[in-house]
Design goal:
Blueprint lengths: L6 E5 L6 H11 L3 E4 H8 L7 H24 L4 E6 L3 H12 L5 E6 L3 H14 L9 H8 L13 E4 L2
Parallel strand pairs: 1-3, 1-4, 2-3, 4-5
InterPro entries: P-loop_NTPase
Protein name: ATP-binding protein
Keywords: ATP-binding, Nucleotide-binding
């Protein structure tokens, strides 16, 4: 029987460190890292100016990403998806990627306080001024309205981190 790779994905509020953790886990596991931000920036470099634009283009790439990730997992290679799993619907899509081909998954839940996330957003914005339009307290508050902490009753294999 062929052993497929493991799918890793993340939940955590904006600024929790999902992208940083994704890079670290990909390196530690010699896994393929797939970043939603990189795909969107490459495919739609001038079209995303609001949260609504982000949602539109993010949904457009999902069918291609799903089949691409499944193809990689079927080779036995682990995949780390730097895509948000911050709502039940987002996590359902991520779990479906692995469950459709009957492979394992790991959800890393970065359970940081609002204050910790806001401090990291400020630091990120200072280090990369090009992020100043999206890395704001207002955007944090807006997207945090949609955040729902993951629950094992969603059929998730959760690893919770508080730092």
């Amino acid at each position: 029987m062929t052993k497929y790779g493991t799918l890793y994905f993340f939940a955590g509020k904006m600024g929790a460190g999902k992208s940083t953790k994704a890079k670290r886990i990909a390196k530690e596991n010699n896994a393929v890292l797939i970043s939603e931000d990189e795909w969107l920036e490459t495919l739609y470099p001038t079209q995303i100016h609001s949260f609504e634009h982000y949602l539109k283009y993010s949904n457009q790439i999902k069918p291609l990403i799903k089949s691409h990730v499944q193809s990689i997992l079927k080779t036995g290679t682990d995949v780390v998806m730097d895509f948000p799993g911050n709502t039940v619907e987002q996590r359902r899509w991520l779990v479906e990627i692995s469950s459709d081909i009957q492979t394992s998954h790991q959800l890393i839940f970065l359970n940081l306080s609002d204050d910790q996330c806001i401090q990291q957003i400020k630091k990120r914005r200072d280090e990369d001024p090009s992020r100043e339009h999206f890395d704001t307290i207002e955007m944090f508050n807006h997207v945090s309205k949609f955040f729902k902490a993951p629950s094992e009753n969603e059929g998730l294999n959760i690893k919770e981190l508080n730092q």
